[in-house]
Amino acid sequence: MAVNLDKFNVPGVGTGVLVQPKLAYRFRVTLQNFSSNGSTSVQMTSQVVSVTRPSLTHDDITLDVYNSRIYLAGKHTWDAVTLTVRDDVTGEVARAIAGQLQRQLNHAQQSGPVAGSGYKFSMTIENLDGGQDNATALDTWELAGCYIQNVNYGENNYSTSDALQISLAIKFDNANHSLNNIGPVLDTDPANVGPTPVPSSVGKY
C-alpha cells in the first residue's frame, strides 16, 4: 500500500502536504554605511548570532460617540531590532561598533554631528533558501535611518564556555519588506503604492 500524504493538512483548507516554511537559521544581515572605519559589513555579517525581525505598533485614536467608542489607527512606531554578534579575537567587530558609536557622538570631544545623515546607516535582513554559491533571498527587510540605540557588551564569567557576545538595539525610521518574485509588501516608494481608496460614504468606518 502506498503512503498517502494528501491528508497532511488542515481539513477544509485544501489538500496536499503543507508548504515548506522558511527556516529561522537561514538568514543574512548586511549593514551599509556602518561605522567610521570603512567597509565593515563582511566582518559584522560573518559574526552575527541572531537578529529580531521588525515589529510595528500603532497608537490608538479613540473617538467617543453616542453610546460607544470607535478606534482608529494613529501614528505608528517601529520598535528597535536586536542584533547579537560575536566579539571576535581580531577585534574587528568591536572596532566597527565603536566607530559607529563615535559617529553618533564623539565621546572624547563631547560633540555630535549636525544632522542624522552624518551617522545613520541602513540594514538588510534576508531569509535565504539554503543555497551556498547562488543563495537566493526568499524575502528581504530593508531598514532605513538606523542608529545604535543601546549596546550591551555582555559579561565575562569563569563558570561558562560561552563565546563573548555584543548585543545592539538598533532603532530605525522606516522599513520595506519584499518577497522574492512577488515584490514589495511594505513599500516605501510612493510610486509603487496604489491610489488611496475613496470611502463609499462619509462617516463609515
Summarize the structure.
The chain is mainly beta and 205 residues long.
Structural summary, described in words:
The chain is built from two helices and ten strands. With 205 residues, it is mainly beta. Residues 195-205 have low confidence and may be disordered. 9% of the residues lie in helices and 38% in strands. It starts with 26 loop residues before the first strand and ends in a 19-residue tail after the last strand. It has one domain (27-184): Pnp Oxidase, Chain A (Roll), CATH 2.30.110. The strands form two sheets. Strands 1, 2, 5, 6, 7, 8, 9 and 10 form an eight-stranded antiparallel sheet that branches. A two-stranded antiparallel sheet has the order 3-4. The protein has helices at 41-46, 92-104, and strands spanning 27-32, 48-51, 55-64, 69-79, 81-86, 121-128, 137-152, 165-171, 174-179, 183-186.
